[in-house]
């Protein structure tokens, strides 16, 4: 390892397996950050500046016809989910999926995923691919990672994204999967949403959960079991610029999130050829623990009291999951889980 001007450069002699892992995580990161807009700009270029504009017109017509698919279960491909590149992505950190209880294929589940982190990297690894062996660990259960509907507005990118088993995080989408798609469905919801990314700091466990009760109401209306899930290590993948509540940066980020639909954290990880600066996440172990399901009795029109009671039960189960496993996965015993607005 060579250090120049405070930057630690990677050695020239690195095992080929590790190079493949770095390539896999770089591909994922660049796709997450830039593929959607790249596809949009390419579409505009073909449409207005080439002789093949008619092909793009045909695609856009089909895209309009196909617009409801992200809310109707998507278009998953098991072969894409089993690409070897996802195994390299999992091994980069490495990321591990830990089961604490069985999930029955005769029921449906809403998995509350925490924390959001900067990019929810482990959520993709575990639930939008077979990198960590989801279907082997939970046979008969089909995972659907719920993401912002805006992702499906980008031409071509939407189709690539759906192949992984991602769907829109809308009420219509969840209703279809829980009411019309049979059983054995596990809807993975990153409950904290985009704003929780602004709380993503190593060693700080602040979850925006106090007012997040929509998924609780959905669980009651459909009789769907809730499964608390915590990903230890997700917060260690990047360093974010300090943005305390009330600061100019946090106020700016809140405004941008309100109008753009996604949060703009100011962060850095490592690079491809250095360990100090870049967009690639740090090579830190991730251990995602799937808790025991909370059975929910169906209520057609749940009252606010019933919603609040189940919400409190879910928070208690999530806190217990965190406290039970935190010391096993490198969290200081004094660290506590904080639920914020």
Low-confidence stretches: none
Apparent shape: globular
Mean pLDDT: 95
| Strand count | 13
Distance between the termini: 44 Å
Describe this structure in words.
The chain has 341 residues and is an alpha/beta fold. It has one domain (2-340). The chain contains 12 helices and 13 strands. It has helices at 16-49, 53-65, 78-81, 84-92, 121-127, 134-137, 157-162, 171-180, 193-196, 214-222, 248-260, 304-325; strands spanning 2-4, 7-9, 95-99, 109-114, 142-147, 166-168, 185-190, 206-208, 225-232, 239-240, 267-268, 286-290, 338-340. It has a 7-stranded mixed β-sheet, sandwiched between helices. A hairpin with a 2-residue loop joins strand 1 (2-4) and strand 2 (7-9). Helix 1 crosses helix 4. The longest helix has 34 residues, at 16-49. The protein is globular and about 60 Å long.
Q: What's a quick, concise take on this entry?
A:
The chain is α/β, with parallel strands linked by helices and 341 residues long. Helix content is 40%, strand content 16%.
Q: What's the helix and strand layout?
A:
Elements: E1 2-4, E2 7-9, H1 16-49, H2 53-65, H3 78-81, H4 84-92, E3 95-99, E4 109-114, H5 121-127, H6 134-137, E5 142-147, H7 157-162, E6 166-168, H8 171-180, E7 185-190, H9 193-196, E8 206-208, H10 214-222, E9 225-232, E10 239-240, H11 248-260, E11 267-268, E12 286-290, H12 304-325, E13 338-340
Parallel strand pairs: 3-12, 4-7, 4-9, 5-6, 5-7, 8-13
Antiparallel strand pairs: 1-2, 9-12, 10-11
Helix pairs in contact: 1-2, 1-4
